[in-house]
């Protein structure tokens, strides 16, 4: 009996031991299996993270400006409306940051009746010299008001002089830029085609135009002041391709050789003052003067009489703008801008004919509804020089309301 | 109405409107995760002393705080890195001020290693190589023959940016695992024998600190009050508060208190160091 009991105990223990070993083995197997699964998941997460990292390099931003404008009667043609709703801007900006310091940007504009390519450029920051960058492609000309985004500008549009000498803001070319991180100095030098109108993609002559800008920034933190002062210049020309006739700044007709270059050169000075005064205030101004030229676009097959009536033009011009921007609390801004543009400084009165000067006062109120929506009210009041061609101040005031949504 | 008449009237309206509506009873603070513990402690003590004032602190990272400052959704932004030029320009374009930078504490970015790791010290170059993925095995820096597992912060973190700009100075390797907050980095290194991470000293519980030296010939330092105070520890940085405008009213009182001896005592209590 005792023997039987011992055998039974031994058998039970053996079976128990065997089953325990089996259980441990099976648990080990389960753990290994799950460990394998976790490792596989880890690897998949890593792969997904790498893929997501690539997506993080793409940034999509943009803004839409829906606007209503009411125009003074001298801006309205017969039987045309004196007011309209329209989409002023509808831009989407794609930025791909390929590597640290290497960026590609593409920005089309889908505004009413206008599908255009606004920006298409690459920026490369020189390795180990991060303050230096090289831009290539189509982008803003290096000028303060031009580079100040349309999505941020506090008035209806850029000032008259800037629109005249930098039409459509953009140019195609190469820019070298130094933006000092230790010295508060910005330097920009751009070589460009010099004939960008939004339609002409290629240069119309072999010479390239040059544009340079330098800005030094002061900070006076105790006074809550930041001051930027700068100078800029433009040197270039347009080729007279079809017409041997030219009108100079004095309005005198002269002749040149077809193929000659018509001068474009000017210099400017700028200043921006930012003051931490009752919620923030800025005063910004720029003055520029020089010589601008417009080549005749008449066909080479036109008659000499026709060519004489549409000559190449070269004119001395000057202009300036002055902004006062006052933040009212966090959500509101009052803005006043006064700008002046004389397309021909050598002539005035009746002799100026259509080249009359304009002095424009624009006032606006901006309300930031939230991070994305801005509602603006504008009133633009241009005052023109009077002469025989323009005997009185034109009725050309513009009232506008704009709603801007950005993302 | 002539142009000359409308302008002064509007200007007067603006100035009158500007002079009103600036009082604050509630102060919102947003930004750096590194500074959350410190900032909450400041808020807690200040509210105890000033029950009429409510200070609301949230994290999210320095980048998040700076965006909130630009968007007008916070009064104070905590940032463990200086604002970038592009961020200052955004603030300037929106508010026409350059912002106000207030250094409020000092921190040494600590290199976390697992307590079982036999590596004691690392040079800045070695750290850069590890985070760029050029050095992938501990034996290359004096440790065991084991793969280095690298932990870091998300790109909205000021510590991420500071470490990138001052230590790595190149792109982070794709193998760096981004974690949400220094506490998560510490936790990962605590569990991983072959892990390495970085972050504010205040969070380093259950992990060891690696000594750091500028280069192979320099003396190595631990991030202590003395080495950070003297600027000897190579990865020493300021922690900042940023505002849109110079502080006024309750915000000014709160900031003055933070910069006072009493406020600065809190920095050492939570593992940071006074700003001066």
Your description of this structure?
The complex is a heterodimer of chains A (407) and B (276). With 407 residues, chain A is of the alpha+beta class. Chain A folds into 2 domains: 1-56; 59-110 and 144-167 and 208-406, Porin (Beta Barrel). Helices cover 17% and strands 49% of the residues of chain A. Chain A has 4 helices and 18 strands. Chain A has a 16-stranded antiparallel β-barrel. In chain A, a hairpin with a 4-residue loop joins strand 8 and strand 9. The radius of gyration of chain A is 33 Å and the shape is elongated. The termini of chain A are far apart. The mean pLDDT of chain A is 90. Chain B has 276 residues and is an alpha/beta fold. Chain B has 2 domains: 25-106 and 239-269, D-Maltodextrin-Binding Protein, domain 2 (3-Layer(aba) Sandwich), CATH 3.40.190; 107-236, D-Maltodextrin-Binding Protein, domain 2. In chain B, strands 1, 2, 3, 4, 6, 7, 8, 9 and 11 form a 9-stranded mixed β-sheet that branches. Chain B has a two-stranded parallel ribbon with strand order 5-10. In chain B, helix 2 (36-49) links the parallel strand 1 and strand 2 (54-60). In chain B, helix 3 runs parallel beside helix 4 (85-95). The relative contact order of chain B is 0.19. Residues 18-24 of chain B have low confidence and may be disordered. The A-B interface holds A 46, 49-50, 53, 56, 99-100, 148-149, 152, 179, 181, 219, 221, 224, 226, 274-276, 278-282, 324-332, 334, 336, 361, 363, 368, 371, 381, 383 and B 3, 6-7, 10-11, 13-15, 17-19, 21-22, 71-73, 85, 92-98, 100-101, 155, 170-171, 174-175, 177-178, 244-246.
């Amino acid at each position: 009996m005792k023997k039987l009991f011992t055998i039974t105990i031994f058998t039970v223990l053996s079976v128990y031991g065997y089953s325990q070993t089996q259980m441990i083995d099976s648990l080990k197997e389960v753990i290994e299996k799950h460990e394998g699964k976790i490792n596989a998941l880890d690897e998949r997460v890593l792969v997904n993270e790498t893929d997501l990292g690539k997506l993080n390099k793409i940034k999509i931003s943009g803004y839409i400006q829906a606007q209503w404008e009411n125009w003074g009667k001298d801006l309205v043609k017969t039987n045309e409306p004196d007011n309209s709703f329209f989409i002023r801007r509808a831009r989407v900006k794609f930025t791909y940051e390929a590597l640290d310091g290497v960026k590609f940007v593409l920005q089309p504009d889908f505004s009413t009746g206008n599908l255009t390519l606004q920006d298409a450029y690459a920026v490369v920051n020189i390795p180990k010299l991060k303050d230096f960058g090289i831009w290539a492609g189509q982008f803003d000309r290096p000028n303060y008001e031009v580079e100040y985004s349309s999505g941020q500008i506090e008035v209806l549009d850029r000032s008259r002089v800037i629109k005249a000498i930098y039409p459509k803001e953009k140019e195609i070319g190469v820019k070298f830029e130094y933006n000092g991180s230790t010295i508060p100095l910005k330097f920009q030098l751009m070589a460009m085609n010099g004939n960008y109108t939004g339609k002409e993609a290629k240069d119309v002559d072999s010479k390239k135009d040059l544009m340079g800008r330098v800005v030094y920034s002061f900070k006076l933190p105790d006074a809550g002041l930041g001051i930027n002062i700068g100078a800029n210049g433009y040197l270039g020309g347009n080729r007279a391709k079809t017409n041997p006739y030219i009108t100079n700044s004095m309005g005198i007709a002269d002749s040149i050789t077809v193929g000659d270059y018509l001068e474009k050169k000017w210099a400017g000075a700028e200043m921006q003052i930012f003051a931490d005064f009752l919620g923030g205030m800025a005063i910004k101004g720029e003055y520029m003067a020089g010589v601008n030229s417009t080549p005749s676009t008449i066909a080479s097959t036109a008659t000499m009489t026709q060519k004489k009536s549409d000559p190449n033009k070269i004119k001395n011009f000057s202009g300036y703008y002055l902004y006062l921007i006052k933040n009212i609390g966090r959500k509101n801004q009052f803005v006043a801008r006064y700008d002046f543009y004389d397309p021909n400084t050598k002539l005035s009165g009746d002799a100026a004919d259509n080249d009359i000067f304009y002095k424009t006062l624009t006032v606006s109120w901006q309300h930031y509804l939230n991070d994305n929506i801005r509602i603006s009210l504008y009133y633009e009041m241009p005052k023109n020089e009077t002469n025989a061609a323009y005997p009185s101040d034109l009725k050309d005031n513009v009232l506008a309301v704009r709603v801007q949504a950005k993302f | 109405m002539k142009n000359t008449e409308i302008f002064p009237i509007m200007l007067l309206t603006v100035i009158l409107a500007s002079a009103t509506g600036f009082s604050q009873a509630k102060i919102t603070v947003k930004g750096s995760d590194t500074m959350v513990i410190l900032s909450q402690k400041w808020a807690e003590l200040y509210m105890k002393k000033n029950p009429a004032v409510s200070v609301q602190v949230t994290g999210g990272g320095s980048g998040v705080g700076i965006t909130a400052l630009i968007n007008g959704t916070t009064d104070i932004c905590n940032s463990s890195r200086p604002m970038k030029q592009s961020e200052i320009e955004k603030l300037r374009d929106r508010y026409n001020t350059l912002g106000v930078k207030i250094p409020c504490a000092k921190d040494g970015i600590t290199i976390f290693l697992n307590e079982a790791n036999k590596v004691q010290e690392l040079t800045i170059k070695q750290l850069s190589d590890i985070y760029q993925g050029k050095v992938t095995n501990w034996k290359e820096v004096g440790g065991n023959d084991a793969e280095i597992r690298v932990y870091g912060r998300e790109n909205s973190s000021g510590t991420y940016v500071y470490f990138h700009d001052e230590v790595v100075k190149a792109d982070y390797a794709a193998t760096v695992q981004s974690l949400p907050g220094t506490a998560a980095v510490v936790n990962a290194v605590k569990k991983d024998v072959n892990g390495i991470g970085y972050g504010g000293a205040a969070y380093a519980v259950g992990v060891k600190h690696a000594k750091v030296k500028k280069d192979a010939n320099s003396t190595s330092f631990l991030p202590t009050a003395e080495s950070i105070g003297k600027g000897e520890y190579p990865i020493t940085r300021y922690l900042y508060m940023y505002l849109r405008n110079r502080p006024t009213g309750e915000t000014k009182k709160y900031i003055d208190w933070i910069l006072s001896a009493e406020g600065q005592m809190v920095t050492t209590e939570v593992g940071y160091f006074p700003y001066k």
